[in-house]
Structure formats: C-alpha cells, structure tokens
Amino acid sequence: MSVDELESLTGGSGVHVWLVLWKAAQAVEAYAKRSIEHLELCGSDFAVLEALLHKGPLPVNEIGRKVLLTSGSITVAVDRLETKGLVERRAHAADRRARIVHLTKEGRRLIKRAYAEHAADMERLAAASLTTAERKTLIRLLKKIGYEAAASSEHSDKESAA
C-alpha cells in the first residue's frame, strides 16, 4: 500500500470517516443483536414488533418502509410473527383489499418487555461511552452526513433516470 493510500485511511479523510462509521455501526449492531437474542427473534422481527408498538396497527408495506425491509422480506417477517401468534392481519375498515397488521395481546406483552430491556441495554452502552453533550453532537453530525448522502443519491438517481 502506498503512502497516499495509507494517508487516505487516517486523518479524517472521507474514506477514514466512512471506515470508522461503518466499523462503529457494525459493532453497535452486534451489541444490539446480543441485547435481543434471548427473545428468539431476528432483528427484523423485533423491528416489526417495535414499529407496531410505537406506531400502532399498520399496512404491511408501510411497516416495510419503516423498518427498511423489501416487500418480500416484510411479508415473510409478518408471516413468521403471525405463525408465532405475535401479530395478526385484519381487513382494512375502508379498503377490503388491504390488510392491516396488529399486535396480538401476546405480541404486545412480549415487545413491551423486550423493548424496555433493549432500550436499557442501549442506554448502558451510550452512557458508558458518551456524555449527553457528545450524544447530541454525534446525532447532529450523523444526521448531517446522512442527509447529504441521501440527497446526493437521490440526485444521482434522477440523473440516471433522465
């Protein structure tokens, strides 16, 4: 590796920022997965239950958008949760073609307890490593780079379509 290539991986270069962000995200994701592994739910199933807990009953496609799953993946996740008796699909009141996903009593009980434990685990991690001021700064900076990346991707997508 050349000196220029090595320097691009240190000192705050764009590549260095990306590598640090990626490695940190991987480590935090692994920590979060360990936090819920005792539930015998995968991360996407936990995310679906959490979305329903905090947003209320939702159509399958809307849940997919909220938890970043494709239409095929969200259907499989909802099927899995329905088989476990944690969610149920009900007909939409105004549109009989649409199905709305609801938590069952068992699903609500499970995710309320699990989310409280998970939130406490994530709080322990954040408190062990960051002050309140550092958290606010980190959130602001992550949003800043995320919005820029999203806007740039959207711009590139529009140019490709033209």
Topology overview:
Layout: H1 3-8, H2 14-36, H3 43-55, E1 58-59, H4 60-67, H5 71-83, E2 87-91, E3 99-103, H6 105-129, H7 132-161
Antiparallel strand pairs: 1-3, 2-3
Helix pairs in contact: 2-6, 3-4, 3-6, 4-5
Low-confidence stretches: none
CATH class: Mainly Alpha
Task: Average the pLDDT over all residues and give the rounded result.
Answer: 90
Order of helices and strands: HHHEHHEEHH
Largest beta sheet, briefly? 3 strands, antiparallel
Assembly level:
single chain
Q: Decide which structural class fits the backbone.
A: mainly alpha
* C-alpha end-to-end distance: 39 Å
Describe it for me?
This protein is mainly alpha-helical and 162 residues long. It is 73% helix and 7% strand. It has one domain: Winged helix-like DNA-binding domain superfamily/Winged helix DNA-binding domain (Arc Repressor Mutant, subunit A). A three-stranded antiparallel sheet has the order 1-3-2. A hairpin with a 7-residue loop joins strand 2 (87-91) and strand 3. Helix 3 crosses helix 4, helix 3 crosses helix 6 (105-129) and helix 4 (60-67) packs across helix 5. It is globular, with a radius of gyration of 20 Å.
